[in-house]
Amino acid sequence: MKPSLLMRHLETKHPTYTQRNISFFQRLSNSPNLNSCLISTSKANEAAIEASYRISYHIAKSGKNHTIAKNLVFPCIKDAVECMFGEYHVQKIKNIPLSNSTISRRIKDMSIDIEATINERTKKSPFSSIQVDESTDVSDLSILLVIARYLNVNELEENLLLCYPLTKRCTGEDIFNAIQDYFCENEIDWAECCGVCTDGGKSMADCYKGLRGRIKIGAPHVTWSHCCIHRQSLAAKPLPDSLKEVLNQSVKVVNFIKANSTSTRLFKSLFRDMGSLHTTLLLHTEVRWLSRGNVLTRLFELRHEVLMFFEDHPFTLSSKFYESEWLQQLAYLSDIFHK
After folding, report:
1. Could you tell me which SUPFAM superfamilies the record lists for this protein (predicted)?
2. Quick check: 301 and 284 in contact, CB under 8 A?
3. Mode of pairing for the β-strands spanning 142-152 and 155-166
4. So where are the chain's domains?
5. pLDDT surpassing 50 at residue 285
6. Is the confidence at residue 232, as pLDDT, over 70?
7. What is the β-pairing status of strands 223-226 and 128-136?
8. DSSP 8-state assignment for residue 283
9. Model pTM?
């Protein structure tokens, strides 16, 4: 381009720079332009948003209150960055949005994305099956859980498909309608479902009015199976009297130690002094039958420590820990319940 044309452009379009020297224009050419500034700012914002999503994921996974991000997570990150990298990098992490409402939105966005991914994989799978369970929580609210098993890239996967509160009744019709509405809303076809697994309750297993019977009406090809965990629980109900007595006595021993806070603290102190692998016993609960194996296994592993504890704290069943037959039955119960 001719120098005269450049001079005319400078004088007409940028008259304020006509008296500037060459070094000024060289510095101006080397300085970042608007596009590079916008790109840099955009990348910084994207990194802050990604960090916000990652933190929200861990908060949701741990089940903590959303306010923990602002009250605990951010101060910890700030102190760590300041100690290791300096004040300059602390200013960058201040751009991470971690308010209570933001964390809630992030978790909701991730939940929607996960649900859409699972539904898409379920629909693309040539076959799938579901496991249905209905139980009541501590607040007397019935929760319906549906777990889907499907084929994804030649690998079987299991994921939670539906978690739905049953606010009124828990009949087979209500359970079926909840599942049917979700399938219709997400365009999941019963023709691709090859099996349904439930417990043996009437609302689930009844061939006419239960969930099993209602599914058979619209999808007669679907096979029904009984949950193996519930079968194990039912099989454990009619225990022989001798084994049942050992189970009840074991529960009484654990309750005697755990019921009193002073005994619990002394028990922990004794275990620490003896170098035991465990420091506490586990409580037994009848509703969650899976806890039986853990309770009995822990009691059997700590039988020597329990016996030493009863030397200073007499109990009516302490003599049982001297009986080899009783200990053998305890070991047997621990084995069958644990498996």
Report:
1. Ribonuclease H-like
2. no
3. antiparallel
4. 43-108, 125-231, 239-337
5. no
6. no
7. unpaired
8. P
9. 0.57
